[in-house]
Amino acid sequence: MPVTRFAGAHTINASGQNVIDQTSPLQMDGAITIGQLPIPLANALLLVNAVLTDNNAGQANAPDLSINVAASQTAVIPISCSEYIKQINSFLSTASVPPILNDGTLADNSGDAPIVKGTKVTSLEISYSVQGGPLTSLNFRADINTYKNGVANATAVAIANAALAAGNLANTTNATTCRVVTIPVTIPAFDNIDNTYFYIKISPVTPGGCTFRLYSVMMNFTFNYL
Description:
By secondary structure, the chain is an all-beta fold. The protein contains no helices and 16 strands. The strands form four sheets. Strands 5, 6, 7, 10, 13, 14 and 16 form a seven-stranded antiparallel sheet that branches.
């Protein structure tokens, strides 16, 4: 059964009520599965045969922002998706919040060790339109890169590079009507390791007369913090 632990003294508020002191640490032991993080299109890096643009440019017009791929192109759209909060248990110490004792247990007299927590990416959602298609192909991958002092960079595959199913290549109603595809992480795990980056790559291939617009990237996740 998930536990929410309140540690610390009670106090009397201005209304004379007995409440938990706001400086008391709270530990949430149960994970929440409904997290979603919008990933800015501006996080795209080193675009190949693609461009971030406002299809409805001008101050007087509502923005219509997308990453566009013209006809007869093989595009690569790398995006950094690391703008989430992580919990890193290796940062805990006798002076941290929450503190741990020298034996590695929480300093709340529970005898419990800190639970492995953080952010667990469970899937990615991409929203895009296709006109003049179908696309020749649309590939997607996701990886977590780890950087350590004096150690070779390491890459863990979160979603193996693969072509999306043929049904995801067809035309949408128009250029501003999206198809939304959810791509699950095969084996999700809490990212609680120091110094990691989560990257995705999207590669649409457009035949002659076909155009592609990537409108949004959403990261769906489970989170669980102290």
